[in-house]
Design goal:
By secondary structure, this protein is α+β, with helices and mostly antiparallel strands.
Length: 213
C-alpha cells in the first residue's frame, strides 16, 4: 500500500494525537503532515479546502478527506479489520461499541470543558434543569458512568481492546492531565493499561519529538 493512501494532518499535541496512535495500532503505512499553528498553517487556503473548520485531525484516505476523531477511528477500525480494533457489523456488541465511540465527543469532552471553562450564563439556573438539558447530565454523572465502565473488565468491551478505548481512554487521560477529572485508581489503572501498548508508545515518542521542534 502506498503511503499516500493514508495521510494524517496533525498538530502535536492535540486531539489528532489519538488518531496518530490509531494509525500505529492499525499497522498500515501512513504519511504524517504536521501543521504549524503558530504559522497559521491550519488556516491556509489549501488546508481549509480539506477541513473548513481549520482544526485537526483530518485524515485523507484514497483521496477522500474527512475529520472528527471518533469518526476517523471508527472508519479506520472498519477499513482495516485485520487489526481487530472494531466490533463488526452484526455482532451483538456493535451497538455498545458505537455507544462508547460517540460518548467521547458528545458527553465526556463536554463534561471536561464545562469543568475547566464554566459558563457564567448558567450559574443562576436550577442545577436540575441544567442537568436535564445537557446531553451528558453533569460531571458527577459522567464520572460515575466512566468509573463503572473501566473497572469491570480490562477494556470497555471486555477482553478486546478497540478503537472505543482510544477515544474514551484518550479523553480520561487528558482530563486527568489538566486536572478536570480526579486521578482515581480506576482511571489511572485503565489509562496506564492503554499507555503500555507498543503502538501508543511509538506514537507518543514521535509526538514528543515533534513538540520539541
Amino acid at each position: 500500500m502506498s503511503q499516500d493512501n493514508l495521510i494524517l494532518y496533525h498538530v502535536s499535541p492535540s486531539r489528532s494525537s489519538t488518531v496518530h496512535w490509531m494509525l500505529e495500532e492499525v499497522g498500515q503505512p501512513y504519511t504524517l503532515k504536521v501543521l504549524d499553528r503558530k504559522k497559521s498553517e491550519n488556516r491556509s487556503v489549501e488546508y481549509l479546502k480539506l477541513n473548513p473548520s481549520g482544526k485537526v485531525p483530518t485524515l485523507v484516505h484514497n483521496g477522500v478527506a474527512f475529520s472528527e476523531t471518533s469518526a476517523i477511528c471508527c472508519y479506520l477500525a472498519d477499513a482495516f479489520p485485520q487489526a481487530k480494533l472494531n466490533i463488526p457489523i452484526g455482532h451483538p456488541l456493535r451497538g455498545v461499541y458505537l455507544q462508547w465511540l460517540f460518548y467521547g465527543p458528545s458527553c465526556l469532552e463536554p463534561a471536561i470543558l464545562d469543568q475547566k471553562f464554566p459558563r457564567a450564563e448558567i450559574k443562576n439556573i436550577d442545577p436540575e434543569v441544567v442537568k436535564g438539558s445537557m446531553g451528558w447530565g453533569n460531571l458527577e454523572t459522567v464520572l460515575s458512568i466512566l468509573t463503572q465502565a473501566v473497572s469491570k473488565t480490562p477494556y470497555l468491551l471486555g477482553e478486546q481492546f478497540t478503537a472505543a478505548d482510544m477515544i474514551i481512554g484518550g479523553g480520561i487521560g487528558w482530563a486527568m492531565f489538566i486536572k478536570a477529572f480526579p486521578e482515581i485508581p480506576e482511571f489511572k489503572n485503565y489509562v496506564d493499561r492503554l499507555h503500555s501498548r507498543p503502538a501508543f508508545q511509538k506514537a507518543r515518542k514521535k509526538d514528543m519529538e515533534l513538540a520539541q521542534k
